[in-house]
């Protein structure tokens, strides 16, 4: 092989590596953007939950689920080895790790707040059910034993004679 052929082959290999690195970096940057968007949505949901809103009334739920599914798919592909996120750029790798840690912290807070919202909803439901039971018991002709309850009868005296 001539020197020019070796140089050409080496140059082609460097370009291929450069393109692969560029594609990998673009994929990492896209993943970072996804994580940032998901983190912002979770933070907004946490703020709503902190105000005491029920979890069922949150507007972020659908978008959060969609983005979380995308993120989970990427993580599953990496775990299965079908996708590789080789990050050669140290700063980009640190950004990715930082964003993942922020997302994890936001999701941990979200889990706690959602559990608290569910418990609050359960307490509200139980309070309503208790009020309904008390109202039914107050107008029911039956006592706790299932027999007709003795009603208090008012007896008055008649003064007209």
How would you characterize this protein structure?
The protein has 161 residues and is mainly α. Helix content is 73%, strand content 0%. It contains 3 helices and no strands. The chain has helices at residues 3-50, 61-80, 90-139. Helix 1 (3-50) packs antiparallel against helix 2 and helix 1 packs parallel to helix 3. It is rod-shaped and about 100 Å long. The relative contact order is 0.10.
Topology:
Layout: H1 3-50, H2 61-80, H3 90-139
Give the count of helical stretches. Answer: 3
* Shape by Cα distribution: rod-shaped
Query: What are the low-pLDDT stretches, counting only 5+ consecutive residues below 50?
Result: none
Largest sheet: none
- In round numbers, the mean pLDDT is 80
Q: Tell me roughly what share of residues is in helical segments.
A: over 70%
Rg calculated over all Cα atoms: 33 Å
In sequence order, what are the helices and strands, one letter per element?
HHH
Cα(first) to Cα(last) distance is 137 Å
Helix/strand class: mainly alpha
**Which percent range describes the beta-strand content?**
under 5%
Please summarize what this structure is:
This protein has three helices and no strands. By secondary structure, the chain is mainly α.
């Amino acid at each position: 092989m001539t020197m020019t052929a070796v140089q050409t082959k080496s140059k082609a290999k460097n370009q291929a590596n450069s393109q692969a690195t560029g594609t990998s970096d673009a994929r990492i940057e896209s993943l970072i953007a996804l994580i940032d968007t998901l983190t912002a949505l979770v933070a907004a949901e946490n703020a709503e939950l902190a105000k005491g809103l029920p979890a069922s009334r949150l507007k972020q739920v659908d978008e959060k689920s969609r983005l979380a599914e995308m993120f989970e798919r990427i993580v599953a592909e990496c775990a299965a080895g079908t996708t590789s996120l080789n990050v050669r750029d140290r700063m980009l790798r640190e950004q990715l790790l930082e964003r993942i840690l922020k997302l994890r912290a936001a999701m941990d807070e979200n889990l706690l707040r959602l559990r608290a919202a569910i418990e609050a909803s359960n307490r509200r439901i139980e309070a309503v059910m208790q009020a309904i039971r008390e109202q039914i018991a107050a107008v029911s002709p039956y006592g706790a034993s299932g027999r007709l309850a003795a009603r208090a009868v008012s007896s008055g005296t008649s003064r007209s004679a």
